[in-house]
Amino acid sequence: MNDDDAALWRRVQVGDESGLAALFDRHEARLFRHACRLLTAREDAKDAVTIAFFELWRKRSSVRLVDGSPLPWLLNTVSHAARNLERSGRRYRALIARTPAADSAREPKAADESGILAALKRLPAREQSVVVLTVLEGYPDRAAAETLGIPVGTVKSRLARAKAKLREDLAAMEVSWT
Q: How many structural domains does the chain have?
């Protein structure tokens, strides 16, 4: 991405915690916005970003960089953490719903559980990762392929399938509005 990320990354690779802190300061806001698009709870979005940076530190010897920046890797890791947090939240809510005390308290509904965000969440994880990196974050197909460790052609085919599924979902939503 730029020379600053590359310099910070070199510091992180030799175990310099202040380099990780500088990367956090630089990318935290963007990663948080990304996590907020994928999760309904703000606290979960913060957790997803924290998990991504923890994993970045833990796996610093094997992280794939794109143009010298760990940002695409971080975006992908935030997506995975968000899915895991959402899944565990669903399990927790299902458990709570089965308890006798659950009848008296209602769970709040998410703001966009029937819209575009819900359609994106229904995509398989592989297709969702490609959509997030290429469409939402604007990375070129080559950068997404590098980040995900797959061929560029696979990125293109997953993106085409995802767009077709999203198009169908959006068309069905549009019909329900009329």
A: 2
Tokens of 7: 């310099």
Query: 25-50 pLDDT, tens per residue?
Result: 999 999 999 999 999 889 999 999 99
> Distance between CA atoms of 130 and 154, rounded to whole angstroms?
10
| 19 plus 55 within the same structural domain | yes
Q: In terms of residue numbers, what domain contains 74?
A: 1-108
Q: How far apart are the first and last CA of the chain?
A: 45
pLDDT at 108 over 50: no
Cα gap 140→9, rounded to integer Å: 21
Q: Is the pTM of this model over 0.90?
A: no
The 10 Å CB-count burial string (b at 16+, else e) for 77-110 is bbbbbbbebbeeeeeeeeeeeeeeeeeeeeeeee
**CATH code, domain with 161:** 1.10.10.10
Query: Which sign does the torsion angle of CA 60, 62, 67, 72 carry?
Result: negative
Residues 124 and 67 in one domain: no
Placement of tokens 């458990």 in the chain: 95
